[in-house]
Each structure stands twice: as C-alpha cells, then as structure tokens.
What we know:
The complex is a heterodimer of chains A (422) and B (110). Chain A has 422 residues and is mainly alpha-helical. Chain A has five domains: 3-107, Orthogonal Bundle (Rna Polymerase Sigma Factor, Chain: A); 113-234, no CATH class; 236-311, no CATH class; 319-369, no CATH class; 371-422, no CATH class. Chain A contains 20 helices and no strands. In chain A, α7 crosses α9, α10 packs parallel to α12 (237-250) and α19 runs antiparallel to α20. The longest helix of chain A is centred in the N-terminal third of the chain and has 29 residues, at 3-31. In chain A, 38% of the residues are buried. Chain B is an alpha+beta fold and 110 residues long. Chain B has a single domain, classed as Alpha-Beta Plaits (2-Layer Sandwich). In chain B, the strands form two sheets. Chain B has a four-stranded antiparallel beta sheet, covered by helices on one side. Chain B has a two-stranded antiparallel sheet with strand order 3-4. In chain B, β3 (51-56) and β4 (59-64) form a beta hairpin. The chains are: A mainly alpha (422), B alpha+beta (110).
Amino acid sequence: MTSDDVSAEAALSRVFTEEWGRLVARQIRLTGDWDLAEESVQDAFALALERWPRDGIPRVPAAWLTTTARNRALDVLRRRQVEAVKLRQSAQLADHLQGGSLSTALEDDSGIVDDRLRLIFTCCHPALALDARIALTLRTLSGLTTTQIARAFLVSETTMAKRLTRAKSKIRNAGIPYRVPPAHLLPERTAGVMAVVYLMFNEGYAATEGDALIREGLCAEAIRLARVLAGLMPEEPEAEALLALMLLHHSRRDARTSPSGDIVTLEHQDRALWDRAAIKEAAAVLATRDHEVPPPGPYRLQAAIATCHATASNAAETDWARIARLYEQLHEIAPSPVIELNRAVAVAMAYGPAAGLALTDRLVADAVLEGYHLLPAVRADLLRRLGRIEEAHAAYQQALALTGTTAERRYLEGRLRETEGG
Amino acid sequence: MKYMMFICHEPERLDEAVAQVEKDDGAWLNETVGRGVRLDGNALRPPNEATTVRVRGGSPLLTDGPFAESKEAIAGFDIIDCADLDEAIEIAIRHPCASVGSIELRPFWQ
Lengths: 422, 110
C-alpha cells in the first residue's frame, strides 16, 4: 500500500463519517426512494475507494460524492423509466418532472432545510416501532451497516435486515411524510427525536454485555447525532443540553469499569481517567445559554446534575444539596420514581443516610419500582451505612435476585459477602 | 392518500362510545366532511350479528358471528383522504371514540 492509498483511505473514512447522512438525506428527497438513495451513496463511496488512490483526492470530496451518487441514481431511474416499471417512485418522479427533465429534478437543491433534519424526523416518526427508529437512524444517518447494527443490538443480521426493510416499507406505504414537522407538531416530535438519540446512547452506555467496542461506538454515534441536531436546531435549547449530558456521561467511560470488567461506582472512580476534553466541551455547550430566563427542560437539568459530578474533585466534595434540588426540579416537570430514587441518593449524601432512606421508604410503600434492582441496591447501601447490617444483607440479596448483567451481579455479590454474618 | 379508519372497542363499551359521540355533537364529522377529508363512513351493528362467509372446496361455508374472536371489535369505519399519515393521525386523535377504544389507520393499497 502506498502512502497515497493510505491518505485517500483516511480521507474517505473521514468524509464517510461527515457526509454519509447528508448524502443519503439529499438522495431520499430527490428520488423519494430510500433503498435507491442508500445504494447510490454506497456506490459513490465504492467508486471513490477505487478512484481516489489513483486519481488523487478531489478538491471538494463531498461535491464529488454528491455528483457521483446523483448520477448513479439517475442511471437507475432512467433504466426504470425505459423498462416502464410501474413503481410508485417512478410515478411520483413523473409528477415531479412535469416542468423539466429528469436531470434538472435531481439537480434541484432548493431545499432550504437541511435534508438531514427531514431524515431524522422521518426515521424517528412515532408511527414506527421504537427499535426500528433507532436502527433506521443508525443505518441512514450514521451509515452503520446492517451487520454492525445487528451486533450492537444482539440480534441476528436477518432479524435486523427485516426490521429495516419493514420500517422503510411502512414509511413508503403508510404515507409517513419526509419533512420537518409543522410548528404545531414540532415540540412533541423534537422531544421524540431526542428520546431516540438518548436511548441509542443508553443502549451503548448502560449495557455491559456484548462487544464493548461496538457499545462504545453507539455512544459516540449518539453524541455525533446530538451534535448535528443541536447544530440544525439552534432554537432548541434541549438539543444542546442533550449533547452536553451525553458528553458528560461519556467522559466517565474509562473509569466506569475496572480492568477485570467490574463496575466502579461514581464515588470510587479514578477521576483522573475522566475525559477532560469532553467535560470542557459540555461546559462550553451549556454556557451559551446560561443567561436565558425560560425554565430549564429535563435534559438541561440532567446535564446540570452531571456537571456537579464532573466538576467535583471527589465524591465528598460534590455539591449534593444542589443535586438533590435539581432532582426535585426534574421530578416536578417529569415525574418518575427513578428520579425520586436518585434524589434519595443525593439527599443521603447531603443530609445523611437516614434522610435518604426515608425517601426510599415511600417508594417501597407505593410499590412503583417493584422488580427494579436499584431500589433494594440503594436501600442496602444506606442500611449498611446506618449499621443495620442484617437488613442491608437482605436488601443486597433482593437486589441480586433482580439484576441481569454480570458486572452488576459481581458488584452486588461483593457487597453481599461484606455484610455476611452481620 | 386514502386511509380506512377502523373504529374499534370492546362491544360491552358501546354505551360509552355512544356517549362520546353524543358529547362531540357532530363536531368531528362536520369538520372532516367540511375539509373534504372524510369520504364515507358508518357505525356497524355488533359482531354477534355478523355472518362470516368462506368458500372451501368450492362450497360456501357460513358462520354465525365474526371472523375472529377478539376482545375489541370493529364498531365502525371512516374513509379519509389525507395529505399524509400525520394528517390522518391528527384526525384519528380527535375522533370521539378514540378515548373509548382504539382506531386502526390502514392505508389503501393504492
């Protein structure tokens, strides 16, 4: 391999990450055919891989790829027209073409809205199943292959391929529009898009099973999508907040597990392992709106909580009282027993384990978190700190019976041994 | 795009559905007809008055009752012509029976 090959491949892989989503989104708008859009963009990259090492990297790589993908699609559509295949897309295209030729239709770049925004709203349409929304976003916007997505979600490639095909055919046949929703639907749909991106992140962040690299890639991809979203929707403060929140969580990735794969809880993490660049970026993102008056949304509050952790030099130095207040605010706008449980932890850190335990008593009484292993796990820790070892032991056992992942089981088993014979 | 809206609910909840329709007092109907969105529609007699027809080995086979037993049954239908699924969803959300049972939106084949 010559150095030209290497630099062409490096350039190509960078352009792929940056441009795939934009290219596919544009092709979908122009052809109305999702499969054709993906194929033509893929073909353009394949051709680049062949040509660029030989002919050199084009001056504007994205423009070269756009033209190549467009010509590919044009060839296919011409062939279809010649064959008079009565595909729905051809009919649509025929309507579209009534004032001009096929090539001018494909050159029409008058869309003022970034095509990626259309694409993300369509991929995250609430009429699609949640798992399909995530898969379709990863396929069309991020350019992950079906194999990669299947591996990330621990399903077979056939299952994932079917899921993607089904989603695309529903978009086509059920009339899911390819557009940014109108103003009256926008707040709800934007929240839906952000939920998908955050879920994608958590899919990579929370699970400890499966290939660690792929899981981490999922987090990185969610962050990249949030960055795109925040850039495309500057008037949406929550998009930036979501980006900051994920950056802050992700900054702890190297400290969250020990070399043997055991979970390291926040208070015991080696803070030198935290990614300072990510924390700095998050702070900068959040600072742009610090002066604004409107009440903060749920992502902003969560990002503020994460900031408290990220900026504290150790667990004891953390501003737990502020965290408890932020959780209370969060509970007011988005009531959830999980948030209450988190508040209980913060209250215990700020005002002592007894105060925290009292809050968890209410959750037990309400029976709203039955089957959720973190409730007995938190109670066990608080009971242990209060010296109520026998009750702590029982709670650890309860938590252990409810948890599924190996790393969490190991952590709880360790604690269980510590409280044995108490 | 044309969509068939199946209005479904548990047959026992017919009274509730009727109450909702009365409360709506024709608002949904007037609006959708006025906008030129609703092409047709009607309420249907309960499933126990249905007759299911099959032809097997060339012979007709009749069953007294619906084609499949289920908790919810089709209680009515509306045919709507919309710009896209978003408009159809918006119309379905405001259908008086949406709060009693469920509404299945099925796009026409063509």
